[in-house]
Design brief:
About 25% of the residues lie in helices and about 25% in strands. It contains twelve helices and 21 strands. The protein is globular, with a radius of gyration of 21 Å. The N and C termini lie close together (about 10 Å).
Length: about 375
Amino acid sequence: MLALALTALRKIELIEVPPPTLKQDMDVLVKIQMAGICGSDVHYFEDGRIGARRAAYPFILGHECSGLVAETGPGATRVRAGDRVAVDPAMVCHRCDQCRAGRQNTCRHLSFLGCPGEAPGCMSEYIVVPDDCLYPLPPNISIAQAVLAEPLSIGLYSVLQARCPAGSHMAILGAGPIGLSVLRAVQEKRPGGIFMTDRVEARIQAARQAQADWVGNPDTTDVDQAILQLHAPGMDVVFECAGQQETLDQAQEILKPGGALVVVGIPRTERVSFNMDLLRRKELTVINIRRQNRCVQAALDLIARRPGGLDFMITHTATPMAAQEMFERVAGYRDGVIKALLDFGAPTISAQSSGTECESGKPQEIRKSKQP
C-alpha cells in the first residue's frame, strides 16, 4: 500500500509499505479517506522530534483521520464493514493503573498513531486499530468533518479539565485549530466573555467569524492591557494554545487571583519558565493537558448538533501527491491555512496504487520501504 512518510527534515515522500493485517480479535482494518495535518505533525516535519520523541526515517505521519471499515476481527462489535468512522488515535491497554483510574490518556502502554516508537501514522491507505478506537458517523457528519473530531476532543477535554462555570471570563491565546476548538467547547459553557489572540490575520478573522467576543493581534496591540481594560478583574481561565513562552507570560499577567492557566499548546523547547512571583501572589493554578481522554464521542455529538459549525476551519484539501507543498503551507502559515486535509479517498491515490498515471499525467515516483 501507499503511505506518506517523512524521509528527512522537511521532506515528505509517497512510499510503498506492506499493508497492515488483523492480529487481535478486536482489530479492525480501516481504509483511510481523509487525514488532517496537525501542528504536532509540523513539529516532526520541521524538527524531527517532539521532546524526547524522535522520528526514525522513513516515518509515517498523522493521527487525525476518518475512513471506512474494510474488515473486522471476530471480537470487534462496535463497527461493521462499510461503516464510516472517526478514529481515536490513542490505543490503550485498559489494564495499567492509569487506565483503571480512568486516565487512558496517560496509559502506561499507550500506542498512538504517528508517534515515534509507538505506531505508524494514519497518512496511508489503510490502518489497523482496535474497535474501541472507532466511532460510527451519523448521516449528517461528513468524512471531512469527522477529521475535526480529534482536535475538537482536545478542546472539549481542556475545558472539562478547567472546570469553567457559566459566566466565566476566558482568554484563548492562539487561534489555530486547537484554539478554535477550545473556543467552540467554551461556547457550550455560556461564558461571560471570550478573548482571543493570534498573529496570523486569517486566524484572527476565523476567531471573529466563530464569534469570539474580542480578538487582538499582539504584534499591533498591547493585548494584556486591552483585555484588562475590557474586564478589569482579569480572566478566570486562560487557555494557552500557541506553545510559546510569550503567551505563557501573557496568561499570567491577565489572569485574576485564583485563576487557572490551562497549557494546551506544545512548546518546541523542553523547558519553559513561569513568573513565580505572579504565580505565587495570585495563587494561580497551572493545568497541563495531555491530548484528550474519552471525548471523541462528545466531539462528534457537538459537530452533529451544529452541522457545518466547524467547516470554516477546513481551509485546504489536497491529494497525497501534494503533501509536500501542503506541509510547507501549514508550516509557514501561508495562504490563510487553518486546517489542511489530505484526501486519501481521491481517485488519484487509487490510480497510484494500481500503477496508472496521476493527475499531472506523469507516473508518481514511489519509494519502496519494508519498514515504515
